[in-house]
Amino acid sequence: MFARNASRAFVAPSASRLFSSSSARQTKVTVLGAGGGIGQPLSLLLKTDPLVSNLSLYDIRGAQGVAADVSHVDTASEVNGYPMENLDEALDGTKVVVIPAGVPRKPGMTRDDLFNTNASIVRDLAAAVARVAPTANILVISNPVNSTVPIVAATLDKAGVFDPARLFGVTTLDVVRASRFLSAITGASPADCNVPVVGGHSGPTIVPLLSQVPQGKSLQGESYDKLVHRIQFGGDEVVKAKDGAGSATLSMAYAGAKFTNSLLRGLAGEKGVVTPTFVKSPLFADKGIDFFSSLVELGVNGVEKIHPLGPLSASEEKLLEACLPELKKNIEKGKAFVA
């Protein structure tokens, strides 16, 4: 499953082609937390994905209303909404579970501030998936991803059903931001700025490998530092702009739908689907870090290959050095919660 020296080909679809389709089978997708700020637009976007045949929407409140609304969109997929007491029914027969459930970030909050509330929510949902749909692919959006993914892994492991090839932390928003922000300062198209973003999904654990794309190679000094900071802390920008009314829900929904489509294409047998995602990884296992986001090839078994980071600039080496201890701490926090 893991490839330390495999070739890489990360090509992100343009904004006008959020979804790519495949001639292979369609799939039932369940959204846990469909009534929330991310869940609602995510559900709408998934309704338009040609690879989704059945969309199952669940939340402790509001999912049935979201389902009724989204079901009017003129695409072929069937939509069903489920209240809190019907979680098992929502999960029955699903192949992909997307989890945006949890509380949003507010001004002054870090992702770690969300931990105590969201950790419990994610653990309980993971336990339900283990019981009802143990072979499903699980996509974790709920923050802090650096900790919630290990929580899901440990919960599945306790139930005896953990498959590291089928658990993903969705870090696509970092990739989307890197592409958009780099294009804005270089004048290139975002579709041509396919920046691999590795590490984790919060602040200094986010490591954009700008040197690996032509548009980013020449950046240095203050321009480079400002761009890296904006990629790492883009969420703060949105929280501040919304003035307490929410966090990056719309862009996160877009990123979540984009990653879901990539996974569905891989599951359907499409070759060469490569994108960054936070998975159980051997890349830094020797440092006690067993989850890491890097370029991952997706396929019929979920994770098919985990690619090495490739050559790093001196600046990226420093970013990685700052990332690793913080990421290790986040991961251990998630594990300790379940233990």
UniProtKB/TrEMBL annotation:
Binding positions (substrate): 105, 111, 143, 177
Keywords: NAD, Oxidoreductase, Tricarboxylic acid cycle
InterPro entries linked: L-lactate/malate_DH, Lactate/malate_DH_C, Lactate/malate_DH_N, Lactate_DH/Glyco_Ohase_4_C, Malate_DH_AS, Malate_DH_type1, NAD(P)-bd_dom_sf
Keyword NAD: yes
Reactions listed under catalytic activity: (S)-malate + NAD(+) = oxaloacetate + NADH + H(+)
UniProt binding sites for NAD(+): 33-39, 59, 118, 141-143, 252
Superkingdom of origin organism: Eukaryota
Signal sequence extent: none
List of catalytic residues: 201
GO molecular function annotation: L-malate dehydrogenase (NAD+) activity
Domain Lactate/malate dehydrogenase N-terminal: 27-169
Database matches in Pfam families: Ldh_1_C, Ldh_1_N
One example of a Gene Ontology biological process annotation: malate metabolic process
Lactate/malate dehydrogenase C-terminal domain segment(s): 171-338
Database matches in PROSITE patterns: MDH (PS00068)
Similarity field: Belongs to the LDH/MDH superfamily. MDH type 1 family.
PANTHER family membership: MALATE AND LACTATE DEHYDROGENASE, MALATE DEHYDROGENASE, MITOCHONDRIAL
Subunit architecture: Homodimer.
Protein known as: Malate dehydrogenase
